[in-house]
Amino acid sequence: MSEMQHHILSVLVENRAGVLARVSSLFARRGFNIFSLAVAPAEEERFSRITIVVDIESSPLEQITKQLFKLVDVVKISELDPRSSVERELMMATVRAEPGQRGQVLELVQIFEGKILGVAEDQVTVSLDGHPDKLDDFEELLRGYGIVELQRTGRVALPKLDRDRARLRAVRGKVS
Amino acid sequence: MKLTGAQALIKSLEQEGVEVMFGLPGGCILPAYDPLLESSIRHILVRHEQGAGHMAEGYAHVTGRPGVAMVTSGPAATNLVTPLCDAYMDSIPMVAITGQVPTSAIGTDAFQECDTVGITRSVTKHNELVMSAQDLPRIIREAFHIATTGRPGPVLVDVPKDVLQNTMEWYWPDSVDLPGYKPTTKGHPRQIREAAKMILASERPILYCGGGILKARAADALRELAELTQIHVVTTLMARGAFPDSHPLCLGMPGMHGNATAVTSMQKADLLVALGARFDDRITGKVSAFAPEAKIIHVDIDPAEQGKVRRPDVPIVGDCRLVIEELVREIRNLLDAGTTQADTSAWRSRISGWREQFPLAYEQSEPGDALKPQFCLERLRDSAPEDTILVSGVGQHQMWSSQYWRFEKPYSWVNSGGLGTMGFSVPAAIGAKVGRPESTVWAIDGDGCFQMTAQELVTASVERIPVKVAILNNSYLGMVRQWQEMFYDERYSEVYLSQDVPDYVKWAEAMGCIGMRVDSPEEVQPAIDKANAIDDRPVVIDFRVDAREKVFPMVPAGFANDDLVLPPSQMERKERLR
After folding, report:
1. Nearest residue to B247 (alpha-carbon basis) of B225, B266, B264, B263
2. Closest residue to B302, CB basis, from A25, A173, A176
3. Using the beta-carbon criterion (under 8 Å), do B304 and A74 form an inter-chain contact?
4. Per residue in B57-98, pLDDT tens?
5. Which CATH class is domain B373-544?
6. pTM of the complete model
7. How far, rounded to the nearest angstrom, does the alpha carbon of residue B150 sit from its chain's CA centroid?
8. Is B185 on the interface with A (CB under 8 A)?
9. Do A109 and A134 share a domain, yes or no?
10. Is the ipTM of this complex over 0.90?
């Protein structure tokens, strides 16, 4: 069995109704759960970029990638290697912060270079953007105070720009 | 020029060269049926929307042109799901137009509303909901482009009623702009060179040909390749006719009910050249035991087929015809440059030994016993006028048809391979006859299949489409019965239909056809001759055949191809199949 791990797919699609459903149903049909998914318009208005994170073995992923390519609305797919790509994610959380504990929460936010978005008598809403691992750590520490609500965006990623150019396993050229 | 959406739709279909369409009107598609009255397009009014879909498929099968079906929203669209899936599985070019509730009503559970694009997403190559009349010509143009290029398939266009009623400024796009759709047709030269070397070096090669040969119109190229290299050819269920059965290099159909030589030659090969074939489970049997010593060259226009089932040693993505032509050129170059082809004579004599010892076989019935279905097929085959097109449903009769017919020309065989849709044959035969009216069209059907879609014979009678139907009637769901006999200790569960009802002769006559019933071997030939002489209306012959007859050879599901079950008369010499 090949190893199961996070795979990041960056999928450039035409910005049209129904595209997301087409893409996600390919995973659903085979019973694979999408770990996170972020989608927004890309550099050209006509296209959107979808970043999909899936936990999947390599061989079914290859088949899914090829099937994704067959969608008429899919223009390009790259599998991003986490070691050679930049990843970011945004998290917002409302945390319990009784007046006695508020200082500790604020300190934590400072350490992580997060932001305070709102304060109530016994709660604060904070935000943090950064590498998903950093968000994991922050979330873990906030848990001790009591998380009321939490929302993460799912990661977005692009290939890293250095001389040792990202190993972009892009499958170029289009298929039927 | 201002047109309504409906006028633009019909005009767009005319621009695409559509001559005939199959359909049934209803509420939401109503506006589109009005301009049809002035159109050059012939519309064939079906009796059930599933029939429209299969007719479009049959038409596409034999003409290579996309079949067109047009139906209304809701239940009509859902009735089209089976043919769409069938066309998707067998890569049949088809364009379906469905009506939809007005844009303002979408999502309100309006009368006859369903989420057609959602429901058909996974059974179409592409689908599109049209939200503005202005988009119609572009979307129709794209639909035909997508349906007919690359790996062909069905495309559905869902058109809300108000989009049909609104006006638009007519235009016809010069080209399509689909940045995400660029099929690769030309094979990679380095891979082709690699494949050519491998073919010349192989001592036990087989050309494993699938439906892609027919889709790519590559039959001539295939023949050139086979004759140049003297390599034997197997033609899968979807490729029957792609290579003439009478050709000395033709081994016929491999797979679950393939003949012993075709199955075994693939099993023992050291090289399989897969051409437009997809290593379907009905071909490979148990995948881990399939052709264990074979290297694989896989030519397919769909990159997703490469490595889906069996990892190829040389994958070549491209159009079968273009790639085979390049392969032939490359092999010629290598031969001219002094490369010699490996000695395949031992292999060829092994193959001819198998062919001699393991022909297709069945026991002829004793006088007074029930008719054998294979005998009926042989008589039908030998009496068939030239250029006859054979169409079949799904089950035992389908396998016997593929086994016992002699296919000499491409596009002479129409069946439902991938999806295995019972009820396919009557409507598909009608579509085939509409596409090639000069050819005789024989539909071979089972009694179970026939009862699913027989009402389309009313369509055939009314529209004067003289198809011929041979029902191999064993009063059973025969293939299921065979499995229950062989694998469920003869515990027959819900497979017996009835010997008395329906009365197929009366039923045929009620539908405006000529009906005949045949019980004994002596009656077979006269009935066939009579049917072949009729060309003004459909004919149905009810052949009452032996229910105990089974399809052999057979590789039981999940077993290795080495474990194939031969006809009882050949079982004792099975070990010679090595």
Report:
1. B225
2. A176
3. no
4. 999 999 999 999 999 999 999 999 999 999 999 999 999 999
5. alpha beta
6. 0.94
7. 18
8. no
9. yes
10. no
